[in-house]
Amino acid sequence: MRILGIDPGSNATGYGVLDREDGQLRHVAHGVLRPRPGAALPQRLATLVQGLEEVLTAHRPDAVAVEQVFVSASPRSALVLGQARGAVLAVLGAAGLHVAEYGARTIKQCVAGDGSADKRAVQRMVRRSLELDRTPANDAADALAAAICHAHRGRLAALGVGAYRDRRRRGGSGSWVVRRAR
Amino acid sequence: MRILGIDPGSNATGYGVLDREDGQLRHVAHGVLRPRPGAALPQRLATLVQGLEEVLTAHRPDAVAVEQVFVSASPRSALVLGQARGAVLAVLGAAGLHVAEYGARTIKQCVAGDGSADKRAVQRMVRRSLELDRTPANDAADALAAAICHAHRGRLAALGVGAYRDRRRRGGSGSWVVRRAR
User: Fold this and answer.
1) What distance in Å separates the CA atoms of residue A175 and residue A142, rounded to the nearest whole number?
2) Measured between beta carbons, which residues in chain A are less than 8 angstroms from residue B100?
3) Residues in B touching A73 (Cβ below 8 Å)
4) How far apart are alpha carbons A133 and A137 in whole angstroms?
5) Which residue from B128, B142, B56 is spatially nearest to B92, judged by alpha carbons?
6) How many CB atoms within 10 Å of residue B37?
7) pLDDT tens-digit map of B70-111
8) In the list A117, A154, A158, B27, which could disulfide-bond A112, CB 3.0-4.6 Å?
């Protein structure tokens, strides 16, 4: 099973590809798509779409994982992020891919064992769990982290294990608890 | 000169096509793209993109006009609108089209002579100025209005006339004033 993780952004969209085989994760590729900063928005989004289409053609993923948007930012930044996200999701939809979404806390919990891990901790843990020679750039690390999270949850599901968010703990700030499905 | 106006939305995206010839406007086509409501977002955006690509293939516009987003809505609705808008703009960028953006007040002023005209007044004036047999649906009327606005401003520019927003009037709420360019 080949999983593509994406971290959409208008200036930089990270992607990461990995394979899950017999419960093991294997790194395939990662990178950051950066449209030319000076170009008009439609051209930048078109460049982003083209880059993503090349990633899909090169790696042919079976599943895609994207970080859920945490909408507490300003309407202006929600619009800007939404535009990049919409361009990305349309390409994935056209390719007939199912897109799984995970909250930022869930992804950090999956990768670093701590829902409030900082960016450097995520980068370090992504590097370690995929045995990379170098620490991936921020956006690519976030994309790989989303893919790892999807692989991990798929593995748990295969084992008959479910995960739920324990809202009773610490005033609902949320930690993930793994339990056997009934 | 063939102008495409678009009113992007996640549930309904209006479009309208018109020709400007010798200062006259001629209606070509209009409609509303409505992705299947129950489908997942990536599939709905892909349907929207496909519909828009068919409009571009059928009508081959020279220019595109889109309403500027008025970002005072909630971050959630800005995200939702941004996603539809991003999918649309990426298609236009990939087609090499320049996208002109106009504020809602400017468009209403162009079409209905009143920056605070309501939706029905815009629909009525769009119908009248393009001599349509029927009143176009809301989203299509807004798209045609953006196209009319672009055609109108192109005509003014050809006459050597500029437009500026007179911020001194009524506490900067803004009305449009046409004057000869110096």
Assistant:
1) 19
2) none
3) 75
4) 13
5) B56
6) 7
7) 776 788 889 999 999 999 999 999 999 999 999 999 999 999
8) A117
> Which one of A47, A76, A97 has the shortest CB-CB distance to B71?
A76
Average pLDDT over residues A58-64: 97
The average pLDDT across A123-133 equals 96
Taking CA atoms, what residue in A is nearest to B95?
A46
Break chain A down into helix, strand, coil percent, rounded to 5.
Answer: 45, 25, 30
Residues 6+ apart with CB under 8 A from A57: none
Place of tokens 């200062």: B23
Give the orientation angle of helix B104-112 with respect to helix B138-158, to 10 degrees: 80
CATH code: domain of residue A135: 3.30.420.10
ipTM field: 0.79
Residue count (chain A): 182
Examine the residue annotation and report whether A53 is marked as an active-site residue of this protein: no
Active site (catalytic) residues of B:
7, 67, 139
Number of domains in chain B: 1
What average pLDDT does the segment B158-181 reach?
37
Structure tokens at B96: 């090499």
Enter the tokens of residue B88. 């649309």
Domain span at residue B128? 2-180
CA dihedral for B64, B70, B74, B75, sign (positive or negative): positive
Distances (CA, A) of A47 to A4, A82, A90: 19, 16, 14
Q: Which long-range contacts (CB under 8 A, 24 or more apart) does B112-115 make?
A: B115/B174, B115/B175, B115/B176
Q: How many CB atoms are closer than 10 A to CB B77?
A: 16
Can you tell me whether residue A109 is helix, strand or coil? helix
Residue of A nearest to B42 (CA): A93
pLDDT tens profile B12-23: 999 999 999 988
Q: A150 CB near a chain B CB, below 8 Å?
A: no
User: In this predicted model, what pLDDT tens digit does every residue of B148-169 receive, in sequence order?
Assistant: 999 988 665 555 444 433 333 3
Asked if A102 and A149 count as a contact pair (C-beta separation under 8 A), the reply is yes
Distance of residue B39 Cα from the nearest chain A Cα, in angstroms: 10
Amino acid B158: pLDDT: 53
Bridge-partner residues for A33, per DSSP? A13
